[in-house]
Structure formats: structure tokens, C-alpha cells
Queue: 3 jobs
Job 1
Amino acid sequence: MKVLVVNNAAPFIRGGAEELADHLVRALNATPGVESELLRLPFKWAPSERLIEEVLLHRGLRLVNVDRVIALKFPAYLVPHPHKRLWLLHQFRQAYDLGEVGQGLSDEGRDGEIKRIIRAADQACFAECEKIFVNSPTTLERLRRFNRVEADVLYPPLNDADLFQAGAHGDYVFAGGRVAPGKRQHLLIEAFAQLNTRRLRLVIAGPPESEAYADQLRGLVAHHGLEDQVGLHFGFHPRPAIAEWVNGAAACAYIPYDEDSLGYVTMEAFAAGKAVVTTDDSGGLLEMVTHETGVVTAPDGHSLAAAFDQLARDPNHTRALGAAAKSAWDRRGLTWSDTVEKLLS
């Protein structure tokens, strides 16, 4: 069976979805009788008028020599195929929930027309899929709310699980993953500017979505005089390097706005027995990050600073939270072999 995994591509931007696609192809190729490749389709979403072209381009593509398609994200999942499975990581949220909070397309004028085109294309795509899976209950709820479509929740397994092992609890909080305004690393820096303790450091590591946001973070560090307390490691890092940072951290921090899923930062931290600090508007990861496995606080520098101070004051409690996080993750028992079986069945 020839299985084509289809995902969109923004050149030089890489995050959890790209890691998932690569590992999915690897797991498919490790399955007897399956041959798999990854097709990454370029996607440009600005200016918004471009979105109409993207819909037409992807709906007009024809795939040959492919027995089955597993599609992941908009607009790549619009590509037609008679045997298409959708593992929905997220839709073009600017046409859905983000528009409701002023971060997407409005309902008026040309934006409103573009939004209607995107939603109509989505509905047509969902109707033609053999099966639809989603990566979390959060994604499922959005699909139900906006599209009135049901799906099965299929959580992604952790990539390179053997790298993430409980290690020594160091003197720093690690914040990995893509560096972007929606991930809100600036709030972490603002929190560290308000800490009562100087014993705790912050390590931010990952590829920046834009140089402008990277410069914003550098400026914040300089403004608050935190050069000795906050380390900024922008760019792509080898997986063993990421694992070393996670494994040696006192705790990890991940504070995205309304995340679609648990997030790889959360999964990696839990696998390594590290508590996670997040915020009460961070979406999907709140399914696992609770006051038993980490700290959930308001999305502002003062509240986050209080959380970090508490972790630093009581390291035994911090380690206990991490142990509970690892137990919660281990109970999930997620594997790539089980995931592939569900996607192909």
C-alpha cells in the first residue's frame, strides 16, 4: 500500500506539525506492506486575498500512484483523493475562532467573503474523507462547533521518546518549541523580571517565527538587565540537545494562546518527569497540565513570576509535580504502531 502524507509548508518555519509529519512517515515505512512519502505543499496566507488562490490550487491538484492519503493541515487537506483520511491538527483558525477575538478574518467585506470560501472548501473536504481523526478534544470541539462534523480523537505519540528521561533537576526553567507571539515567550521574560529569587534561570530555545519577534525578546532581556538570567537560543536544535535541556530542567514552561493539542513541549516535559507551568487560556494542554502535574496561572508576568517563585522555594514539591506528570504521561501508553494501525484501519 502506497500512503502519501500531505502537509502544508511555510519555508524555514518548522514546528510540531512538521515533526509529527516526519515521524508519521517513518512509522508508516516501518509497517509491513506499507510504503510512504511526505508531500509538503507551499502555503502563503498573506495577503488574505491569496487564500482564495490557495484553495483553488489545492483543490485542483491530482495525485497519481497513491493508494491512500493521510492529510494533516489546511490547505493541504483540500487535495482530492478517493481514499483520504484526515488527521486534523488544526484548520485555518483565522477563518474560525481566532476571528472572534480579533486575530483573524472579519465577517465583513472581502474578509467575510474569503472566510466563507474557506469554510465551504472545508465542508466539501470533510464530506469526502473516508475517516476523520483529530489530535485533541480541543480540536474536536472546534470542528463540532463551526462545522458540525464528528471525529475520533487520536493523540499523537511522543517523537524520539527514548531521549526524554527523568534526570537531575537543575536551576533553570526550559521553554522549548517554536518562538512566536502566539507562544508568548515575552510573558516568560516579563515574569523573570519580577522574580523575587535570582536562583532560577530561564532557557528559551527554538526557531523564531520572525526576526522581529526574536528582536523583541532580545530587547526585553536587555531592557530588564536579564542577560545573566535568561538565555535565548534561537534556531533549530538537534533532538538530543532539546532532550538534554528538558531532562536537566527544574521545570518546563509552555504558555501558548489556546493551543490545539497537548503540545510537544508538554509531552516531552511529562516524559522526562518535569512539571509544566502554563496559563489558564492555553487550550489543549490543560487536559493534562493541572495543579497536580504543574502550575496553571493567569497569562500575565506577575502571576507567572509568583508561580516560578513558588517552584524555586519548594524544590521537593516541584519534583513531586514532575513525578505526577510522568505517571500521567505513562498511563497514556501512546505508541506509533497503535497510531498507524488506527489511521490505516
Job 2
Amino acid sequence: MIQKRHPTIKSGYIKKIYFHGNGGADYYFIFFTLTNGTDVEIAQFRRVGDENWKQVNIKPEEECLT
């Protein structure tokens, strides 16, 4: 599913993880880091080519592992 993962971008309690998928689409996930150090996923986005980012909800346990 992941062809290339870019470095994580951290800004305070926000982390953004960008990667390029095998199917040619780009993805990024946003996480908040809680005060106890736990990362909580807030949103997922996808785009193909020069399109705008669109919010998605990828569930690998249902879509990729079956």
C-alpha cells in the first residue's frame, strides 16, 4: 500500500504523516499527541495528481487484509 513515506512533520501537539501509495495517490494522516504521549488519529486525506485533498476513512483491517 505504501510506496514512499515522507518525514513526519511535527508542530506542537500535531503530527502530519505524508506518504505516496502504490496506486499513485498521495495520503496524509493528522494525529494529536496527548499529554500522556499517546497519538490519536484525527483525520485522513487522499489526493490523486493535482486534485484537492479529500477526507477519507481508510480501514486497512477491512479493505486490505481480507
Job 3
Amino acid sequence: MREPPAGLRRLTPEGDVPVQLVRWKDCAPEKYRALYKRVGGPWLWWSRLVKNDEELAEILNDSRVQLYALVDRARVEVGILELDFRVEGECEIVFFGLIPGATGKGLGKWLMRKALQMAWAPGVSRVWLHSCTTDDPRAVPFYMARGFVPFARYVEVYRDPRLCGLYPEDAAPQIALVR
């Protein structure tokens, strides 16, 4: 995105939203990893799991990184949002997602609206994110419907995180296990 979507700043009635966005400051790596795995496990998110506590804490405690948990009325974390402003003039939506069972209820639309409102801070001229072929197949169409435009495609080769012990071998059964 090179400009905010039309109507992004317009106030819209929230009604009875069953969730709240909670900023996690000084988040302990183990707390972060637990939510990261709950949200990303079905899609084999792995990049933060291979970082040691020091490396992860350095990212999470950077003042230019904003980490949020989406919590339901019972105060259970049902989603994650991570915004990275470390590149001047840009905001990367590094991680965005909901736990299984929280999708298909409009919470993703609500969360993305909040994400974009925060991402388009003064001085930001580009908001971007990345997806991959193991993500939910609805992800890219969802992002495009919110105003994102595909701009690049990369091939990334990595060892299956189930074979590295990051996830059990029966995780993400919809994704072929390549030995």
C-alpha cells in the first residue's frame, strides 16, 4: 500500500465488538511464542521460533515495534498483530492472524482496520506485509480486498519446521510434509 484506503480514518460505529486490542509492552519471549504458535501453528509459522530469547526480546522490546494481542471477553488471546516501524517511512505488518475458530466472524476485518489506522502514522508512505503459500488460502484475497497490491514474489527454501522439532509432525496436516 502506498496510500491509506479510502475511508480508513472515517469513524465507524463499532457496535458490540466481542474483542479488544491490547498492547503488549516488554513481552516475555515465552508469552509471545505461545500466542505466535497458537495463531501460526496451522500455517507453520516458524521464523520467530528459531530465534533465541535475546534475539526475540531485542525485536519485541524495540520502541519502533508494536505488539498487540486480540483478546475476547474472557480475556483469552485470539489474535496477534505486530507492526514494525524500524524502516523510516514504512510500516510492515509483520504478523497478523487469528487462532483457529476465531476466523470467519468479521474479527479479521476489524483487526485489519485497526492495524491500518495505526500503520498509517504520520511520515509513513508505505504499509506492507508478506504472505506465503502455506498461509490460509484466504489470506491474499483478504489483503487485496483491504487495498494491498501484490508487488513481488520470492522463492524461499527452508527446512520443514515439523522436522526441526518446532511443531509436531502431525501439525498443519493440509501442508505436505516433505522429508
